[in-house]
């Protein structure tokens, strides 16, 4: 049976998760922040959440005039959504134009994620980008997740519907079935369900949060696998992100994804994020563990 949905606004919940405590000024060799987690069906911390919180912790130690432009993170252990997360930030470098930070996310005294982020003062320079893809329908013409799952009875339904992002699939979604052509490609429109404050760094952290929802779907689509495949296990191993231009996540963004390779129970996905002005605002890469039961693998061949 479906579990009850929470009543709080999902976007406000995300903002609360990103509003880290400074732990009363506590510090060791690292500057300390503390955050909470959104409840998940299996009790594990959602990867996009801890990424975004780690980014926010690093942001809190950098001059606001230097927005984050890249981060590289490794998921080391599954997090417990019922326990707070402690974030330790180390100031690695502050140069004339760039600042570098390392954030470690801890639970029970051990790191669950390790991330390095770089920040830069805005500067003029060479400028080009990959072209916006053709023949993409407008987001308003596509069904929302709420509409797609209105009549679905599955334990994960409420968790998907309580996401802070409105996500609309260009291809047939993979929530409960894998229909259509088997290609290593996926595209979604997405934006937060509510407005965010005018804070560029907050929008960049929130984009890291949203970048983790659908990225591995380009791997699954190639093999005709849906999210409800029996006994399938999926976990993010690492996540890299580059912010190219200013972004607002409370306006529609096109997230175009493809998978160059899958092997050894791992799949690699690349993503490019465009705004409605057709500007490339970010690029993402992630490798995930995807374990499929042998009998399901045989059916896919």
Structural summary, described in words:
By secondary structure, the protein is an alpha+beta fold. The protein has one domain: Acyl-CoA thioesterase, double hotdog domain (Porin, Beta Barrel). Helices cover 18% and strands 34% of the residues. It has seven helices and eleven strands. Strands 1-3-4-5-2-8-11-10-9-7-6 form an eleven-stranded antiparallel β-sheet. Helix 2 packs antiparallel against helix 5. The longest helix is centred in the first third of the chain and has 13 residues. It is globular and about 55 Å long. The protein starts with 9 loop residues before the first helix and ends with a helix. 37% of the residues are buried. The N terminus is likely disordered.
What's this, in brief?
Helices cover 18% and strands 34% of the residues. It has 301 residues and is α+β, with helices and mostly antiparallel strands.
Mean pLDDT: 92
Q: Write down how many β-strands occur, each being a DSSP E stretch of 2 or more residues.
A: 11
Classify the oligomer. Answer: single chain
Just give the CATH class.
Mainly Beta
Low-confidence stretches: 1-6
- The tally of domains stands at 1
| Estimated structural class | alpha+beta
Q: What topology, given as strand order, has the largest sheet?
A: 1-3-4-5-2-8-11-10-9-7-6
CATH fold description: Porin
State the share of residues found in helices, binned by percent. 10-25%
- Taken as a percent bin, the fraction of beta residues is 25-35%
Shape: globular
Rg result: 19 Å
CATH architecture: Beta Barrel
Give the ordered list of helices and strands. Answer: HEHEEEEHHEEHHEEEEH
Query: Span between N and C termini?
Result: 32 Å
Note the main sheet. Answer: 11 strands, antiparallel
CATH superfamily annotation: Acyl-CoA thioesterase, double hotdog domain
Count of helical stretches: 7
Pfam family, one: 4HBT_3
Family: Belongs to the C/M/P thioester hydrolase family.
Keywords: Hydrolase
InterPro entries: Acyl-CoA_hotdog, Acyl_CoA_thio, HotDog_dom_sf, TesB_ACOT8-like_N, TesB_C
